[in-house]
Structure formats: C-alpha cells, structure tokens
Amino acid sequence: MTIETPAYFRHHDSPYRLDKTADGGLAGSILDWRTGRFVEDNTKIDDVLFAQAGDIGPLTEQEFVIRTEDLRREYLRGDGPIFALYDTISAMHSVAREQGRPLSREEAALKVSLYRRTFRMWDDEFARLDAGQPPTFGYTSTLAQ
Predict the structure, then answer these.
(1) Partners of 29 in the β-ladder
(2) Could you give phi then psi for residue 140, rounded to 5 degrees?
(3) Is 30 helix (H, G, I), strand (E, B) or coil?
(4) Nearest to 126 by CA among 136, 116, 115, 117
C-alpha cells in the first residue's frame, strides 16, 4: 500500500498525522490535548489506514487544522497572541449563537484563516522549545486540573 504523506486523519476525537520515516516507513503522531503538542504514537497506524467507518477516518489538511485548533482553543488557556486570536474566534461563535445562526461565510473564512495562523504559531513555538529556547508565552490545560 502506497500512501502520500503527510496524511491526515481523525482517530476518534483526536487529529492524527502520518509522515514518512527516513527508511520509507510510516510514523504517526496524535494531538496531546493537555499540551497542544503532537506526540509520536505509531500504535494507531493500522487503525487509520484500514478503518472502514465510524470514529476513524481521513481528513483534509484544512479539516485537520480546524480540528486541531478547535481542541487547542477549547482546552488550552494562556496569554499571548495565540490566545488573543482564539478569543476573537470564541467571540464570533458567541455572537452567532446569541443571534441563533451559524457562522456567516465570511466569519467561517476568517476562522479558518486565524486557525492557520495559530497552527503555524504553535509549530514555531514547539520548534523553539525543542531547540532549547525558552517559551515565548505561558499556557495551561483545562484538563490538567
């Protein structure tokens, strides 16, 4: 079986990503809801490759980013620009909910655009931390309590 990578999936409620390894194999990573990081988890590779239906299935890259950022926005709290963008998205949802309507097409497009930014910002932050640099902002998980 040949699979193009990166490949994106949902494994139950969690975003899951497959990438090629240096030797041509596959490596999987799943979102850790407590840290916002993707952590290696190769135990789910067969699940996502061979699942036929249910709570496991493929995602587009955009669906993967949205699911990831929805979870980070829901479970992580902190300061800094990422959380200001999350507050903007939460405010849009609140207004739409108060008005008894879904997000407008423009609001939905803005949400996707902001989520792409926050997704990159998390990637940049985790790369800095992995390189031994200090964090540029603080955050906690609502699940850690």
Answers:
(1) 17, 40
(2) -135, 170
(3) strand
(4) 136
- Name which of 46, 49, 38 is nearest 15 in CA terms: 38
Residue whose structure tokens are 């040949």 = 2
Interatomic CA distance for residues 85 and 120, integer angstroms = 13
DSSP bridge pairs for 26 = 20
Residue among 141, 145, 144 nearest 72 (CA): 141
Q: What is the pTM of this model?
A: 0.92
Tens of pLDDT, residue by residue over 55-92, are 898 999 999 999 999 999 999 999 999 999 999 999 99
Exposure string for 67-93, b = 16+ CB within 10 A, e = fewer: bbbebbbebbeeeeebbebbeebeebe
Residue with tokens 């931390």: 129
Residues 6+ apart with CB under 8 A from 107: 92, 96
pLDDT of residue 51: 78
